[in-house]
């Protein structure tokens, strides 16, 4: 289990907002992370396309999983709006 912590910078003080346990079995790969800014913010993360998921920060519940078996490594994630994200795999595949 890999934990990552989200921080908020409201002023000169750094505040921890939440910690999410990431169950990755990827060895040397680190998960990619993007934040959905909303009233109930979520975290999009995964190391491979097959492991992409969105976790609600308040409830710590998984709200979305990719549901694909493609194990391509992710190189980047980007949240576009409250309902849309984009990804790029190390092969150059975009989605």
TrEMBL record:
InterPro entries: Wdr73
Protein origin, superkingdom: Eukaryota
Protein name: WD repeat-containing protein 73-like
Gene Ontology cellular component annotations, sorted alphabetically: cytosol; spindle pole
Entry's Gene Ontology BP terms: cytoplasmic microtubule organization
Alphabetized PANTHER family for the sequence: WD REPEAT-CONTAINING PROTEIN 73
